[in-house]
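User: Hello! I'm new to structural biology and keep hearing that structure can be predicted from sequence alone. Could you demonstrate with VIT family protein? Please show me the input and the output so I can see what each looks like.

Assistant: Of course. The first part below is the input, the amino acid sequence of VIT family protein. The second part is the output, the predicted structure written as tokens.
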Amino acid sequence: MREKQKRGRSRTLLDSSTEDKARALKERVYASFTGLAIVTVLALNAGHQSAVDAVVSLAAGIVGITLAGFVAEIIAFQVSHRTLPPRSEFLTMLRIAGGAIGSASLPFLALVSAWIGWISIETALTMSVGIYFVTLIGIALVAVLRTKLPPRQQLIALGAIISLSALVVIVLIAAHGH
């Protein structure tokens, strides 16, 4: 009986850990889409942007989407559990939010490199767009390859994810571009 209870508890912990990883990945994907839209709009207007403006725009966008995700987590917890999150859950929410901010680290470094004059703003923005693009495609590939679908269906699923992702980026670019 004890062994069964132990396995039940460890399965719950595993499920919780898996759920936390999924939540963290979801926040990184949101932040990556937001970052991609921001740097794409800036790249399309690179002749009119300074490196400082690009750094501030990316930082503000990523912090904004991260804070929105953090607040959404708190609200969702309160609605579903009818209480404030306990300390451990609150810390998990903070860690997940921090991971979303981390998704901007390489593009941010590229833009800071332009700010201090090591590379041009155009190069930094192109690098940033590429980093976000590769990140999102990589996540989509991993997601599809982890399924147990036959290869043909994996290819269809990947095409659907890429198509939907392109739609998201187009909508976000339109929103940030005006």
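User: So the tokens describe the shape?

Assistant: Right, they're a compact way of writing down the 3D structure. Reading them back into a model, for example: The CA atoms of residues 24 and 76 lie 15 Å apart.
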